[in-house]
Hints:
By secondary structure, the chain is an alpha/beta fold. The chain folds into 3 domains: 3-87, Winged helix-like DNA-binding domain superfamily/Winged helix DNA-binding domain (Arc Repressor Mutant, subunit A); 92-164 and 268-301, D-Maltodextrin-Binding Protein, domain 2; 166-266, 3-Layer(aba) Sandwich (D-Maltodextrin-Binding Protein, domain 2), CATH 3.40.190. The chain has 12 helices and 11 strands. The chain has helices at residues 3-15, 18-24, 29-43, 59-87, 99-104, 106-116, 129-137, 185-189, 200-209, 227-236, 245-248, 282-301; strands spanning 48-51, 54-57, 92-97, 121-126, 143-146, 157-172, 193-195, 220-223, 240-244, 255-257, 267-275. Strands 3, 4, 5, 6, 7, 8, 9, 10 and 11 form a 9-stranded mixed β-sheet that branches. A two-stranded antiparallel sheet has the order 1-2. Helix 6 packs across helix 12 (282-301). The chain is elongated, with a radius of gyration of 25 Å. The termini are far apart.
Amino acid sequence: MDIKRLTHFIALAEERRFVAAAARMHLSQAAFSRSIQALEDQLGLRLFDRGPQGVALTQVGETVLQRAKALVFESRCLDRDIELLKSGDGGEITLGAAPIPAATILPELLQQLQLQSPRLVCRVRFGNLPILIEQLEAQEIDFCLGDPRLIGKSERHASVAVGRQMSGLYCRAGHPLARKGSVSAEALRDYGIARISISPELLGRVALALGFASHKSLPLTVECDDIQALAQLVANTDVLGILPEKIASRSEFRLHNLFHEGASTMYADVHAIWLKRRTLSPAAARAIDLARKISQNQSYTD
């Protein structure tokens, strides 16, 4: 099977027009049309219905499209694996980091990578985990760091635990609630809570730890995936914040944990996640190993 022709077939199925698909493949329209016709002749099947508004996949074409995407994916993986075997290291990695590992693990990870492999090109993409998984599926990143509980299990993904990042509910040092021995859920309503975006299931666990009946009861004031911005907000206002201990403990913020007893249920289980059928480059594997060591060292020093 001609992988190049299958790639052209996928492009036309997605673009729906010969002109746009040919441009995407950097081919003339005539050459692109010949490629599609050759594929249909080879298969003995009509893959597209042509019309004045463009093309539409036939029922047979819909079936072939799914298999074609799988073949092209496997072909790209094979090409990439061969290049890795030739070079021993791809020379660059692109990783994704969800908000908590981006704030707690990533800064030291980048430093260690630079010290150990100064010629390695490292690109970083930020976002919440569902967005990073979309980039992973599109093969735009090699792996991502995040809590897999936010996305559920998938047979397409492989993962390894990096480390647990404990969190708590924090307020500024001079906050009225900091002087109280115990804080009720009702008292929290008066000030509001700032947090990152997480799934309703995990948010429900956080709500229970703070004394609320469900995640819908939490008095949300700010939702922001920038941990540093959240910490600054909590340090300078009366808003309360759900923050990783590693960030909240920094001297420049001077934050007070309101619920020490709830810490066991407020955490991020950070994993490195990648496509199961895609071989990690030596550089990516080394970065994941470093992330695990960094997380372990942070736990030992807490």
